[in-house]
């Protein structure tokens, strides 16, 4: 079988691609299947995409991306299956998807992990946002052989337009996302040192576009800092410079992301309860569980499934819930360890490459 992956971003660069299907490339090779990845944005354009300014350079990158896509349409006949992640092109109607499905009669697997039929564009790309064709998602679902989505909320939308919809959660490789000792030199099944002099670290990880969900918690964290001494760490691509005592920024890096996460003792994932958030796939909570720390989440969408309230972390509905849950974990190390162990077991069982390997491979059968 020859498989073509059409992606927005270069291979290995974006979490939505890395943790939805790139981790399974080794499994495809084990089956003896050939695959190729073609991204819309090249490396240089991708790095500029979420920066302020550089408008003309972004336009040049956009034009180059369309040129590559047009050239690719002439070389699709050798592929048995075409896997499209999110969209073939970031703006305009689904002309490429229509050509592949209706003219070339190709089998398309359409994959998405956000409610991308809703407008949601960053401030840095507001002009491009006005050119997006959000209603193309339903059309691509209708034209596709199969549709793969990250949670039930997305599946309910896709099933209005397709009878072949599979829920494939975002996953981690639990042989890589491992709990580590605090010196980060030795991997372990689960072992966090019990010490009385360690300054506990509460943390959050994500991109600059999701920092807006963290900011409403700042008053809660400021109140807690008056009662308990802790570090608050943000792992991201941009420093939000939060007004918190013992605040620490860790610039995100693919090479150090697991080691950086292992500096946390408690992980937070606040969300707004809206349509866009209900389409999210809970990746922060999955990462926290994989490295064996309790996750505190807004129980919005799939978050309520990933984190079992009181078993692997806590569901926080109100500011008081956040304050009480964080304080409880700060004071109780055995509780943190118990919830962390249970979280690691849950992620391994339901949100790991090993757990989802068969479901992913059946998409192509």
Rg over C-alpha atoms, rounded to the nearest angstrom: 21 Å
Query: Major β-sheet, in short?
Result: 6 strands, parallel
Sum up the overall morphology in one term.
globular
Distance between the termini: 10 Å
Give me the number of helical elements: 16
Helix content: 25-40%
Number of strands: 12
Helix/sheet category = alpha/beta
Mean pLDDT: 90
Strand order of the largest sheet: 2-1-3-4-5-6
**Beta-strand level of the residues, as a percent range?**
15-25%
**Unreliable residue runs:** 182-197
Order of helices and strands: EHHEHHEHEHHEHEEHEEHEHHEHEHHH
Blueprint (SSEs and pairs):
Elements: E1 2-7, H1 15-18, H2 25-30, E2 34-39, H3 43-48, H4 55-73, E3 81-85, H5 95-103, E4 107-112, H6 126-129, H7 136-143, E5 146-149, H8 152-158, E6 165-167, E7 201-205, H9 218-225, E8 231-236, E9 247-251, H10 257-261, E10 266-269, H11 275-278, H12 283-290, E11 295-297, H13 303-306, E12 313-315, H14 319-331, H15 333-350, H16 353-362
Parallel strand pairs: 1-2, 1-3, 3-4, 4-5, 5-6, 7-8, 7-10, 8-9, 10-11, 11-12
Helix pairs in contact: 9-14, 12-15
Word description of this protein:
- By secondary structure, the protein is of the alpha/beta class.
- The chain contains 16 helices and 12 strands.
- The strands form 2 sheets. It has a 6-stranded parallel β-sheet with strand order 2-1-3-4-5-6.
- Helix 9 (218-225) runs parallel beside helix 14 and helix 12 packs across helix 15.
């Amino acid at each position: 079988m020859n498989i073509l992956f059409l992606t927005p971003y270069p291979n290995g660069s974006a979490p939505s691609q890395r943790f939805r299907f790139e981790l399974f490339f080794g499994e495809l090779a084990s089956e003896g299947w050939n695959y190729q990845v073609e991204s819309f944005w090249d490396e240089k354009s991708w790095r500029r995409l979420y920066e302020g300014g550089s408008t003309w350079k972004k336009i040049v990158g956009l034009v180059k991306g369309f040129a590559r896509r047009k050239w690719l349409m002439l070389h699709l006949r050798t592929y048995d299956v075409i896997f499209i992640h999110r969209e073939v092109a970031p703006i305009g109607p689904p002309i490429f998807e229509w050509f592949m499905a209706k003219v070339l009669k190709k089998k398309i697997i359409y994959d998405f992990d956000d409610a991308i039929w809703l407008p949601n564009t960053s401030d840095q790309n507001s002009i491009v946002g006005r050119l997006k064709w959000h209603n193309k998602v339903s059309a691509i679902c209708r034209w596709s052989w199969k549709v793969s989505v990250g949670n039930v909320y997305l599946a309910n939308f896709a099933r209005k337009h397709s009878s072949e919809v599979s829920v494939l959660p975002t996953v981690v490789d639990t042989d890589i996302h491992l709990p580590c000792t605090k010196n980060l030199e030795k991997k372990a099944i689960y072992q966090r040192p019990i010490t009385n002099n360690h300054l506990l670290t509460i943390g959050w990880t994500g991109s600059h576009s999701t920092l807006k969900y963290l900011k409403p918690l700042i008053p809660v964290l400021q109140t807690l800092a008056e009662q308990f001494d802790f570090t608050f760490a943000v792992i991201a691509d941009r420093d939000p410079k939060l007004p918190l005592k013992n605040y620490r920024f860790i610039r995100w890096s693919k090479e150090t992301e697991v080691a950086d996460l292992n500096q946390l003792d408690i992980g937070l994932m606040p969300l707004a309860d809206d349509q866009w958030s209900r389409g999210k796939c809970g990746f922060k909570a999955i990462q926290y569980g994989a490295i064996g720390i309790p996750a505190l989440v807004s129980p919005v969408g799939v978050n309520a499934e990933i984190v079992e309230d009181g078993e692997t972390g806590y569901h926080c509905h109100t500011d008081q819930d956040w304050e009480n849950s964080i304080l409880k974990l700060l004071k109780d190390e055995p509780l943190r360890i118990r919830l962390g162990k249970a979280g690691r077991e849950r992620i391994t069982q339901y949100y790991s490459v090993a757990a989802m390997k068969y479901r992913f491979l059946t998409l192509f059968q």
